[in-house]
Amino acid sequence: MASTLQKLTSVVHQATAKHSATVIFIHGLGDSGHGWAPVGEELGKHLPHVKFIFPNAPDMPVTLNYGMAMPSWYDIKSLSSIDSDQDEAGMLKSRQQVMQIIREEVEENNIPANRIVIGGFSQGCVMGLLTGLTAEYKFAGIVSLSGYMPLHQKIMNMASDANRKTPIFWGHGDADQVVRYDYGVQSVELLKKNKFDVRFNTYRNLGHGSSPQEIRDLLNFLNETIPTEPKA
């Protein structure tokens, strides 16, 4: 039950001006909110009205890493194929926990859902997509960095209509050896086939990480989707 769900801790970079928009960004496997917090601080210099929330994943055994416990949003058995058996139960549990953060922003902090951007990197990208595509809230945008589509065979049957037209920023390095570039291509093709508004950005010679150019492009996306003055 949702009432017994453990609340996530988060690293938060508060808005430095009047708070009118929020970015919730989900880290990848083995990381924590602290790993992406410096990006929030840098973006915050240009987006003083935006609060950045970086949730921390709980520790759990990860099959891909020989059962070692580490921060993870769900178990990963293999990354050998985009259709690899995915931990649906783990994904859905983490989705509920992320939704708690979203509801808190909307209901307690009075930030409309259409002033919230949800997203993440790698495993966090997967969680951002799962949350963004299935939520009843209409978000301002979805950010998908170096990840892949969750529950590839059924996600479109789970998707709500709320974010059919929500812009999706997808960034992926073409030298990614962890989440292969073609996984990103296949995921974007599925989104486009189902009429989602996805913008695919390829970063040449970038491995499994981010780059200054990607962050600049992300800043442009955030300026477009959650500008200082809310769109009329």
Number of helices: 6
SS content category: alpha/beta
Query: What is the radius of gyration?
Result: 16 Å
Backbone shape:
globular
End-to-end span in angstroms?
38 Å
The major beta sheet can be summarized as: 7 strands, mixed
Low-confidence stretches: none
- Could you tell me the mean pLDDT? 95
Percent of residues in helices comes to 25-40%
Strand arrangement, major sheet: 1-3-2-6-7-8-9
Can you write the helix and strand succession as a string? Answer: EEHEEEHEHEHEHEH
Q: Bin the strand percentage.
A: 15-25%
Topology:
Blueprint (H helix, E strand, L loop, with lengths): L9 E4 L7 E6 L6 H14 L3 E6 L3 E4 L5 E4 L16 H21 L7 E6 L1 H12 L6 E5 L9 H4 L9 E6 L7 H13 L4 E6 L8 H14 L7
Parallel strand pairs: 2-3, 2-6, 6-7, 7-8, 8-9
Antiparallel strand pairs: 1-3, 4-5
Helix pairs in contact: 2-3
Written account of the structure:
By secondary structure, the protein is an alpha/beta fold. About 35% of the residues lie in helices and about 20% in strands. It has 6 helices and 9 strands, in the order ββαβββαβαβαβαβα. The protein has helices at about 35-45, 90-110, 125-135, 155-160, 180-195, 210-225, and strands at about 10-15, 20-25, 50-55, 60, 70, 115-120, 140-145, 170-175, 200-205. The protein has a 7-stranded mixed sheet, with helices on both faces. A two-stranded antiparallel ribbon has the order 4-5. Helix 1 links the parallel strand 2 (about 20-25) and strand 3. Helix 2 crosses helix 3.
